[in-house]
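Below is how a single chain appears once it has passed through the pipeline. First comes the sequence as given, then the structure the pipeline wrote out for it. We keep one example in the README because the format questions we get most often are answered faster by looking than by reading.
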Amino acid sequence: MRKMPNLHWKYNEENVIHNFMSYLNETYSEHYTNDENDLQVFDVWKARGTMTDTAIDTAVKYLVRYGRKNGHDLQDLYKAMHYIVLAIGNDENWEEDMDNRVTAWNESVKKSENRITNIPSLATKVANDALDVYNKAVHRAEESDSNKLEKYEELRDNKLKFEMKGP
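Resulting structure:
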């Protein structure tokens, strides 16, 4: 963490920022997360592209609540500050995030294009396989018919031979 510059702030800002940092350090592990503590609600907001708006709306909630619930609870102001910091941080990284989203989108489009490009060759393969199955079935039927015809002719010939010889 960077050391605060030695400024002479008139309204106790340095102390407020120091207390805010202490608040963050003490409460950060209390954020809603999954079982492995690696995914926070903030990550979901960010992934959905709603981080800035949701953080600002939540900050407003805590600002409005200050003085109404639990009196003048500084926790509400620190929470509001945290959400404002999240909104600022998200907007400062907006361009980089958009670049990452565009890159991910382009990769997704490329994969889809590859799948679409492969459809004709896949359709041709399926059609050729179906044609092979059909041709084999026709060949088997023809062989079967041919065998039946041969057997019929053999029986007929034997009958004719038997009739010619007589009893």
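Helices lie at 13-27, 41-48, 51-65, 74-92, 94-165.

See the next section for the split statistics.
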